[in-house]
User: Which sequence fits this backbone?
């Protein structure tokens, strides 16, 4: 009899609850558990499921989904000789596998890595890079929004860890569930696409704080306060591609900018808390602007101190990145932190896997990054080491696969 991930969790949960007895009567406990018809309930953390298919919202999961504790980003290049038909077959396989995994089910020929876990808020998001369209004979259907990002003075990009034909974002609240998805999708790609680069990230685990709150980055700063909210009147207009797009296959989709940003934590941590707050423009303890209030209090960019200087310095990161400073430009930031060990000088190889979403990268990420590039007080503490831009189509309709309107339209 085939066991689903949910079903097997019930058996493991039963054995765990009787842990003191297992040592003396393991066989009896195992037999009892295997004969249990009704699986034990998953915890809230494990049972949360995010739908793969399009429902009321047309966009893929992993964009407005709450941040998960674990993440993987990966880019693939199509194998030599792989054409549009091969790409379509791969996206069909990937979509089928993602749907099974996000529902907490084990796909065919499963490795068993996550058999005892529920969905754990797993999301799998697929995107196409600039090079994908030329390699599949679809150059005429490549959106202008996918034109390469400009060079920035702070860039020190590694081409081997940048861009790619195909992009996958994985998030889950359980590390094994996230890795399981990564492994399954990599196996699905065999013969059709080869891994170009892969990065691992993490966030605070849901429930680790007394109440839900904005995440902190590895600098200890509250990170994401000014994010657009789905309740905003113009949220969809800013984040998702509208009806007027020339490429109708992208209607309801979004564009993801991905950056590996290493933080110079040794340098940052030598600064006093007062200096750090002036670099950011916000208090470190609660994320409130230096002009007062709480995290959500609007910044008073025109407020001056007794010395006649702006309370929020002119080069403070929060001031320069604010929509008010960028003609209303905004992007939905949804990053993961990373730590990949230590460098030869002993400094941590750690920072932010920056992922942001917008309807038009030129009017959002590029506009804001250009301004940051000209004088952001935070820039001396950051190194941009990898970059990518991907077109993320809408979610698959029932019985369909992600990207079919592009590949078969």
Assistant:
């Amino acid at each position: 009899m085939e066991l689903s991930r949910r079903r097997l969790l019930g058996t493991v949960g039963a054995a765990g609850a009787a842990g003191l007895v297992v040592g003396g009567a393991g066989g009896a406990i195992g037999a009892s558990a295997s004969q249990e018809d009704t699986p034990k309930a998953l915890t809230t953390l494990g049972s949360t499921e995010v739908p793969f298919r399009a429902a009321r919202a047309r966009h893929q999961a992993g964009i407005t989904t709450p941040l998960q504790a674990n993440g993987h980003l990966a880019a693939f290049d199509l194998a030599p000789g792989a054409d549009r038909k091969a790409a379509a077959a791969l996206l069909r396989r990937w979509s089928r596998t993602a749907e099974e995994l996000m529902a907490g089910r084990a796909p065919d020929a499963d490795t068993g890595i996550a058999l005892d876990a529920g969905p754990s808020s797993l999301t799998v998001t697929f995107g196409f890079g600039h090079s994908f369209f030329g390699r599949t004979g679809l150059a005429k259907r490549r959106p202008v929004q996918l034109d390469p990002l400009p060079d920035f003075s702070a860039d020190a990009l590694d081409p081997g860890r940048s861009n790619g034909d195909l992009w996958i974002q994985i998030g889950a609240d359980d590390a094994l569930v996230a890795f399981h998805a990564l492994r399954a999708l990599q196996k699905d790609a065999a013969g059709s696409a080869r891994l170009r680069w892969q990065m691992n990230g993490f966030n605070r685990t849901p429930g680790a704080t007394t109440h839900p709150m904005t995440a902190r980055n590895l600098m200890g700063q509250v990170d994401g306060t000014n994010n657009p909210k789905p309740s905003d009147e113009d949220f969809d207009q800013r984040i998702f591609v509208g009806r007027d797009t020339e490429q109708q296959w992208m209607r309801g989709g979004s564009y993801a900018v991905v950056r590996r940003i290493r933080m110079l934590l040794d340098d940052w941590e030598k600064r006093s808390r007062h200096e750090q707050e002036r670099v950011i423009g916000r208090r470190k303890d609660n994320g409130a602007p230096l002009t007062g209030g709480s995290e959500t209090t609007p910044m008073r960019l025109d407020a001056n101190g007794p010395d006649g200087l702006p309370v929020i310095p002119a080069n403070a990161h929060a001031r320069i990145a604010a929509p008010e400073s960028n003609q209303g430009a905004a992007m939905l930031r949804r990053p993961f932190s990373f730590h990949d060990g230590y460098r030869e000088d002993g400094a941590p190889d750690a920072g932010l896997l920056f992922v942001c979403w917008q309807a038009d990268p030129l009017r959002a990420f590029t506009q804001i990054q250009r301004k940051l590039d000209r004088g952001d007080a935070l820039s001396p503490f950051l190194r941009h080491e990898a970059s990518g831009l991907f077109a993320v189509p809408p979610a698959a309709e029932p019985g369909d696969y992600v990207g079919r309107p592009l590949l078969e339209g």
Notes: Residues 43-407 form one domain.
